[in-house]
Amino acid sequence: MKKNKIHYITRRNFLKLAGLTAGGATAGHFLFSDLMAVPQKVLEKATRSIGKETWVNTVCGQCPGGCGISVRRIDGIPVYIKGNPMFPVNRGGVCPMAHTSMEVLFNPDRVKNPLKRLGTKGRGDWEDVSWEQALNSLSEKLQPLISKGEGYKIAMINGDNSPLMRALSQYWMKGIGSPNYFEDENLLENSTAVQLSQGIKDTPVYDLANSKYILNFGSNFLEEGLSPVYYQQLYSHLRTPRREKKAVLVQIDSQINLTGSNADRWIPIHPGTHGALSLGIAYILIVNELYDKDFIQKNTFGFSPFKDKNNREHMGFESFVKSNYYPEKVAEITGVPTEMIILLGKEFGTHKPAVAISDDASRYTTNGSFSQWAVYCLNAMIGNIQKKGGIYFTPPTPEFHLPELSLDKQTQKSLSHPKVGSEIGVPSIFGDVTIDQFAEAIISIDDDLIDTLIIVDSNPIFNSRNKEAIRQALHKIKNVIYLGMFVDETAKHCDYIFPVHSYLEKMDISGPKSGLIFSHIGLQRPVISPIFDTKQAGDILIESGKSAIGSQHFPWKSYKDLVRKRLESLYKSGEGAVISKSSDPEWIEYLKVRGWKVQQYETFKSFQKLLVKNGGWWNPIDPTRLKKEIFQTKTGKFEFYSTTLEKALGEKAINVEGSTSQEKHNRLLSSLHISARGDDLLLPHHEILYSFGRPEEFPLLLTVSQLLTNRDGKGASQPSMMEMVGIQIGKHWKSWIEINPDTAREYGLRDNKLAWVESSNGRIQAEVRIFPGIRPGIIHMALGMGHTSYGRFGTGIGANVTDLIENNYDSLSNTPALNGTRVKVSRVLTGV
Amino acid sequence: MPSWGMVIDLNKCTGCAACVSACRSENNVPNVGPEESQIGRALFWMDIVEVVEGEYPDVRVQYIPRPCFHCENPPCTKVCPVRSTYKNNEGLVAQIYHRCIGCRYCMVACPYTVKSFNWYEPERPEEFLQTCNPDVSLRMKGVVEKCSFCSHRLQHAREQAKFESRALKEADYQPACKEACPTSAIVFGDFENENHEVYRLKKSNRAFRMQEDLGTEPKVVYLSRED
Amino acid sequence: MTLDEFKKDPDYILYKPIVEKGRGALILGGILFAIFVWTMYMYSTQISLGLGVTGLNRPISWGFYIVNFVFFIGISHAGTLISAILRLSKAEWRRPITRMAEVITAIVLAIGGLHPIIDLGRPDRMLNLLYYGRLQSPLLWDVTAITCYFTASTVYLFLPMIPDIARLRDMGVRPHWLYNFLSWGWTGTEKQKHILERAITIMMVMVIPIAVSVHTVISFIFSMTLQPGWHSTIFGPYFVVGAIFSGIAALLLVMIIFRKVFHLEGYLKLIHFQFLSTLLLIMSLLWIYFTFSEYLTGIYGGEPHEMKTILYKFTGEYWPLFWGMIICNFIIPVIILSNKKLKTITGIAVASSAVVIGMWLERLNIVVPSLANPRLHMAHQIYLPSLVEWALFLAGLTAFALAFLLFSKFFPVISVWEIKEGRKEGLEDVKARIESYQPDTNIELEG
Ligand SMILES: Nc1nc2c(c(=O)[nH]1)N[C@H]1C(S)=C(S)[C@@H](COP(=O)(O)OP(=O)(O)OC[C@H]3O[C@@H](n4cnc5c(=O)[nH]c(N)nc54)[C@H](O)[C@@H]3O)O[C@H]1N2
Ligand SMILES: Nc1nc2c(c(=O)[nH]1)N[C@H]1C(S)=C(S)[C@@H](COP(=O)(O)OP(=O)(O)OC[C@H]3O[C@@H](n4cnc5c(=O)[nH]c(N)nc54)[C@H](O)[C@@H]3O)O[C@H]1N2
Ligand code: SF4
Ligand code: SF4
Ligand code: SF4
Ligand code: SF4
Ligand code: SF4
Ligand SMILES: [Mo]
After folding, report:
1. pLDDT given for residue B166 in this prediction
2. B109–C61: do the CB atoms touch at under 8 Å?
3. CA-CA to A128 of 20 to 30 Å: which in A181, A737, C114, C436?
4. Residues A134 and A249 in one domain
5. How many whole angstroms separate alpha carbon C182 and alpha carbon C410?
6. Smallest Cα–Cα separation from C136: which of B97, B99, B106, B100?
7. Structural domain tally of chain A?
8. Number of Cβ atoms within 10 Å of the Cβ of A426
9. Same domain, yes or no: A359 and A410
10. Percent of chain A's residues with pLDDT above 90
11. How far apart are CA C287 and CA C13, in angstroms?
């Protein structure tokens, strides 16, 4: 049988050939028999026995969303996936990617057995090795380092989002004595806004289902939310006709994305100015006295002028906003008309309950934390924290602890080494060292800082804006082991590839997801036995841990065993219940009244059996938590004036060489591109977007988003996802750039024709989509296209927008600033 | 006789395309690859129609899922020279793939452009063949295909109900797209049966059908957005 | 009679290409055949790979094959219909024209009739049309009408050929068996002549409604759908007019070519061309009248989908084809043919070529733009024919040339016996007829 990708091209070439060979008809092409015959595969299909049908519940692993699914199997082979109606996250719904899971499972380009590099790094030549050889080679590297107390020379980048895998990876790294554990950007949880005001790292949960007025500052929750299907369900609830007035969803974004297209109103805004707009709205709330005076007085700090312990006067949020963010000024910054600002303010202050949310567009920018903070404060102003239709904080899931590691002196010493990369560049205020700083450190420092790097389920060369640094680092590190399914861009530059199970072949835990109003745990279980010679990443860690660290620290037969332990701890906590058909609202009401202690399981066995059958556990009790749990600031209140930031800046400032403390402070701030000083800095305020590109040369701003069909590029292994990648707008197997008709005219771009987009980082080509639903002066593109190594389906499809994006980060949290790179566009003259 | 029909609530539908994906997986809809889809050869039983209204900054965008409407009075079946597409005794507009001569007259005649054609022999890697749904036949080159309202599920449901000696229930027969829809925008059932939700929904004052003036009487009813 | 005697026949020039087969024809035939073989090879790729080798897509799922189908069937109206009308109206100047006209019909109809089969995705299942054929489908109407027309027009071509074939047989022209077989024992007795004339008359009356119906029915495949730009009641007559229009143009071109190649200036005189081209002018005016009515109705009604298609034709990607059509079908013929000075053989050749091209463009303008603008918005697609489609267009043209070449090498392209008859009886006939037209005033006076 012909192989696909290549075959598509062959067909065309064949035609060209047919044209050329003209009269000299080669008889081989007169395939009349082919025409008359029933295709072989149809025959095969027809003769296949009527299979036995079974359904298995598990959790979708195509994205961190964690939806419960039921897999239909025919003779044990998965053929169809639907949502598990019992599962609280998605209640039977799914997103497009769930259905193509089988294309991952049976993907012809999966790595089918361990591979060892042949020839120079990055060439892409591999030699098959056995698992025994592969694992031996790993422990051969680990053992000497550990015994010498040089465990810190081992690093790990983990992108597996299973909470259990994350815990195990951290445990493993601690066991070998290495501080160099990095998590993929996808595992970053952004809680800076909450941290600034409340001193906790929790993610707020928006009670959208009960809200009547949703002011959405750029969150594309229907598409890019942590769990898009969960948000789809909420949205559906919002749109179910009821007796009361319809809830209003206002989308504040520079472009109409999937969420925007479903909003009641779209307010086009200049990228990176969401914070300014929310301060303008705060101004309207203040001057019209539409804020919750009672809440502000009892529960907040820094709203009104106050004196600090040195008796210095501080003006407070109210006067700060009044003197700096009057509507005319905000209109100038944001591009939102004055009347609209006034209207939004009045509506937000009078429609109850209302909520202000922020994400994506307002978050992935250099000023993301400040923007999100300003938005978040609007919620405190109307006092909707811990209120129906407002904001909640989900109670934690019952805890699970891996055994206490008893480390020897040597290992403890190794562990206390600074993290590689922490000495490079600017320290982040709340964020960790980034993978890209790690890579920069590797290539700029001469020593063999790191001897062995293990990458689990992460593709930084594709996702990073600093690809070259990561590539060089991988080349410099002697021994790089990649645990993944495909020879992707990163795997290509590694020394070993340890192929892992697809999610349909493994046992794992999913959840808890932040952003959901209940805590839950999903159980992923194999629906088919591994079809290739692969292993589960967890088992690799356990096995190598046993040999390198000591089997006493890894008392589990396999990862499955660990999963069982996790479920046991859940059982023992006595909280929540296994999800069931009766997870309907009335039943929940009943349980709330009766108390939510679940005694129905006689034994752990019966609990486990039910959980495996139904697919998960949850605890949907009232999410209201104690004030002192959620306000862990110095003042014990919600802070408009952030003492948390004050303290953090103080601590970090010392790390910078310099003379006076004021200078150190200033140097830190300017290297973080923060312009505010004094009180302004510690109050929610607007910072100007930072980009290397000069506006004269690069007049446009680039914004990006992820698609439901591909997210950050994982969909590219599945031909069905590429075929429908832009189905809503009739785009298949390609990238496109969205641009306003006026801007397109200005630069001579034509619809459906190719254009160049160029930034100070590089340039790419994509098809133009002229679209009135985007602000003039903006270019919008989807992430995740343009793989250069991702199997036959994804490779070479579209363009990778991260090639354009500058390597900037949010000043406080080290979240990548994906939006706001300056670019220019031009027509592609050659080609159609 | 039942009148199977679908209601799509545009108030709830987000345009997420889960229905499209579910349909492709359930009905073994083949992929055609980059070059072919670039020239409009992709096959979709469920597709999404984009409607952009207004000019910047007052723009509204709406995505409308579009299966075959299984018209009561289908222009497509009328023109078929060999009765390869026809209205079956359940009122569903069906296709007989092995009879179709590939004249594409029905494609041309369908005012909603819902039919797809197999320009080449559908290709899938051998590995993917085993995950095809055995209940739905694979198509061959040169024939037309389209949404069947997942009629194989109806067949199955009827057999099951008969086996259990009971009447067919609403939940017995639900298509894949409905099953996948995360917002429950799609509702499916019998328009004639007052116990089915579609019976009530089609009477909504938001209900409309595509280009009703054509007299095709589509059995897919949309509920307009409330603004 | 011997060959030498035969050569003394005043109309020998009409037999010359048959008796003295030159090398030129062989070479031309060889070239045409080679081209044809290549096109069939291209077609074989379509058979083995599927219709994907064309430029078709969704929503434009009909293209060149259907366009050429309508076009060729249109051209086929040259013949039988025109010849029948001329015969019926007893136009004396018809004599050197009818044969060519009838040959065009038979050949082009065969070629055109094959197009829907080329267009099938599953030609191997063609017989399903017999097993499961649904008479409700306009496609079946086409099949029926074309089969009928083809039968009638071949018979109608064949009948008047019998005396000429018998002459060839008698002259001992090779291959004997062919002429022997086809002459059907014709000896030229009075009885035979009588029967032949009866038969021709019957066929002539029958063939006119059949011809009209064929093209009407072909228009029905479009107008029976609800597509904007197609769903129109005047499509039937519009297509018939277009067909006759293009048919006459094609006939004129064929006449001009044979006149030149076979030196038939003595038979095909300027007057023939002028008469026919006047007819062409009339058809051009009729065509523009229909076109105008068609578009005015659409534009005036202003139904959005209809409007979209019309505007697309005027200004969309295919605008040069639309305006090219207007120029070719109206502007050029009207300018040339309404001007005495320009109405020369060359002028007429230009006008006719323009019309043939223009009518082909018209078919394209009907098929493609409507499909490109479906009622429900979808990603815009443009149709560009592939090499295979061009090859098959070429196949149609070469098949036509080859078949005509072959015909002209075996049969006289002008009906010799009718010419002879015209010389003998025509003049008297016409005189008698003209007299019979005269008002009966004399008789009244006498009475
Ligand atoms: N369709 C689709 N689904 C995806 C993805 C995709 O690309 N497409 N991507 C997947 C990936 S890779 C990821 S990482 C996730 C994205 O998931 P995350 O990185 O977690 O980002 P969000 O879900 O966008 O935001 C998390 C939560 O933070 C809340 N939040 C907003 N502002 C603040 C704030 O100031 N402070 C705090 N503490 N919380 C705030 C948001 O309301 C949201 O509930 O989505 C996953 N799901
Ligand atoms: N420029 C840019 N960078 C980004 C982002 C962005 O939007 N833009 N997003 C950030 C975010 S939010 C995220 S989530 C990360 C994503 O970063 P990653 O998590 O690295 O995502 P991928 O690169 O898609 O996938 C990594 C590897 O996982 C393997 N894989 C795919 N499917 C499976 C599976 O089912 N099981 C297993 N075991 N392996 C599988 C593949 O081999 C793939 O190469 O990128 C982050 N970085
Ligand atoms: S959002 Fe989609 S891909 Fe992610 S877990 Fe849910 S169904 Fe799977
Ligand atoms: S799955 Fe539901 S919400 Fe998504 S596009 Fe289809 S109908 Fe709309
Ligand atoms: S929507 Fe089109 S294909 Fe479906 S029944 Fe109606 S006319 Fe036929
Ligand atoms: S393409 Fe097939 S189904 Fe459609 S009209 Fe022709 S024969 Fe009938
Ligand atoms: S009803 Fe079935 S065949 Fe039709 S669109 Fe839905 S899933 Fe596809
Ligand atoms: Mo992510």
Report:
1. 93
2. no
3. A181
4. no
5. 12
6. B106
7. 4
8. 18
9. no
10. 72
11. 38
- Residue A726 has φ and ψ, to the nearest 5°, of -120, 45
The per-residue pLDDT for A441 is 94
The one-character DSSP state at A492 is G
Rounded to the nearest 10 degrees, what angle do helices A327-334 and A338-350 cross at?
110
CATH for A137: 3.40.50.740
Q: What is the pLDDT of residue A49?
A: 54
Helix (H, G, I), strand (E, B) or coil at C46: helix
Are A431 and A187 in contact by the 8 Å Cβ rule? The answer is no
pTM: 0.89
Strands A519-524 and A508-510: what pairing?
A: antiparallel
- Say how many Å lie between the CA of residue B185 and the centre of ligand 3: 18
Q: What is the pLDDT of residue A601?
A: 76
Give the separation between CA A233 and CA A283, rounded to whole angstroms. 34
Minimum distance, in Å, between the CA of residue C393 and any CA atom of chain A: 15
Distance between start and end Cα atoms, chain A: 32
CB count, 10 Å around CB of A692? 13
Look at residues A638, A628, A624, A375 and name the one whose alpha carbon lies nearest to residue A517. A624
Lowest-confidence range among A120-134, A180-194, A749-763?
A: A180-194
**Chain A, nearest residue to B201 by Cα:** A241
Tell me A255's DSSP state. Answer: B
Domain carrying residue A800: 700-827
Query: Looking at the domain assignment, is residue C150 inside a domain?
Result: yes
- ipTM score for this prediction: 0.88
Cβ pair C374:B111 closer than 8 A:
yes
Å from CA of A794 to ligand 2 middle: 14
Q: Are residues A276 and A342 in the same domain?
A: yes
State the pairing for strand pair A391-392/A778-782.
Answer: unpaired
Amino acid at A274: H
* Total count of residues recorded for chain A: 832
β pairing state of A638-639 and A821-827? unpaired
Percent of chain C at pLDDT > 90 equals 52
Domain at A787, CATH number:
2.40.40.20
Give residue B166's domain range.
4-223
Residue A37, pLDDT score: 46
Q: What is the rounded distance in angstroms from the CA atom of residue A587 to the CA atom of residue A580?
A: 11
How big is the A-B interface in CB pairs under 8 Å? Answer: 214
The residue that leads in pLDDT, A142 or C433, is A142
C306 within 8 A of C295, measured Cβ to Cβ: no
Which one, of C32, C39, C33, lies nearest residue C388 by Cα? Answer: C39
Rounded distance, CA A13 to CA A19, Å? 10
Asked if the structure places residue A678 within a domain, the reply is: no
Report CB contact under 8 Å: A728, B138.
no
What pLDDT band is residue A20 in, cutting at 50, 70 and 90?
very low
Q: Which residues are A321's β-sheet partners?
A: none
Looking at residues C216-241, what average pLDDT do you find? Answer: 91
Domain containing C351: what range?
21-422
Q: Do B81 and C50 touch (CB under 8 A)?
A: no
Count interface pairs B-C at CB distance under 8 A: 147
Of residues C130 and A157, more confidence is placed in: A157
Per-residue confidence at A597, pLDDT binned at 50, 70, 90? low
Considering only residues A626 and A476, tell me which one the structure prediction assigns the higher pLDDT.
A476
- Read off the CATH number of the domain in which C389 is found: 1.20.1630.10
**How many angstroms does the Cα of residue A771 sit away from the middle of ligand 3?**
28
- Rounded mean pLDDT, A737-763: 95
- pLDDT, average across residues C261-278: 86
Q: Beta strand B4-9 with B220-223: parallel, antiparallel or unpaired?
A: parallel
Residue A688 clears pLDDT 50, i.e. is over it: yes
What pLDDT score was predicted for residue B226? 82
User: Structurally, how many domains does chain C consist of?
Assistant: 1
Give Cβ neighbours of residue A757 (< 8 Å, ≥ 6 apart).
A702, A737, A763, A764, A765, A766, A779, A781, A804, A823, A824, A825
C156, C102 in Cβ contact below 8 A? Answer: yes
